[in-house]
Amino acid sequence: MAIKKLVLDDFFEEEEFTLIGIHSNLEDFRLAYLINKQLEIHLYRKTEDIKSDNLAAHYSIFEWIDQDQDTVWNLVSNTCKIEMQQQPDSVDSLFGDGKTTKTYHLLPEYKRVNYLLKIESELDDDEQKLILNTIQEIKQVVMAHFIDANQLKSKENLIFN
């Protein structure tokens, strides 16, 4: 009996997107405002945050769907800090309040990146460089750089819909 094998890679094309890592100490809403102003886009805060698999971490997300260019823009926080109560027997300090802060990352490979800008569209190199340079012009942005999504181990964390 012949065995037939169906390869799903033929049916699902990998989504084309640009990913930019942003280093900045700004609050998420302030960074979204400055990016909107610089790039003349309209990012808005979504009503629900992205929830991580561990259910403790929530990441803020801003989105803009550009109908004219058929492009979806997402600005997402890469870090989530949660204050937790320590168990009474594990308090390290005699004078401590028994609370610790645990930090979670949407992309653990990029722990130093504060925000991620994902642009779901087929942009050419010139358009990508123009967007990156415009973001780098924001005074409160320390650094911005491209992230190669093909090298990510946690690429599934970038699926927002």
How large is the share of residues in beta strands?
25-35%
Q: Report the total helices.
A: 2
Span between N and C termini? 42 Å
- Structural class estimated from helices and strands: alpha+beta
* Radius of gyration over all CA atoms, rounded: 19 Å
CATH architecture: 2-Layer Sandwich
Q: What would the principal axes of the Cα set say about the shape? A: globular
Counted up, domains total: 1
* Low confidence ranges: none
Organism: Bizionia paragorgiae
InterPro entries: IPExxxVDY_fam
Protein name: IPExxxVDY family protein
Describe the structure.
- InterPro entries: IPExxxVDY_fam (IPR047690).
- This is IPExxxVDY family protein.
- This protein has helices at residues 28-39, 125-136, and strands at residues 18-23, 44-45, 50-51, 58-59, 61-66, 71-77, 79-85, 99-105, 115-120, 143-146.
- It has a single domain (14-79, 107-158), classed as Sirohaem synthase, central domain (Double Stranded RNA Binding Domain, 2-Layer Sandwich), CATH 3.30.160.
- It is of the alpha+beta class and 161 residues long.
- The chain is globular.
- The protein is built from two helices and ten strands.
- Helix content is 15%, strand content 30%.
Structure at a glance:
With 161 residues, the chain is an alpha+beta fold.
List keywords for this structure.
six-stranded antiparallel β-sheet; Double Stranded RNA Binding Domain; alpha+beta; about 160 residues; globular; IPExxxVDY family protein; IPExxxVDY_fam; 10 strands; about 30% strand; two-stranded antiparallel sheet; 2 helices
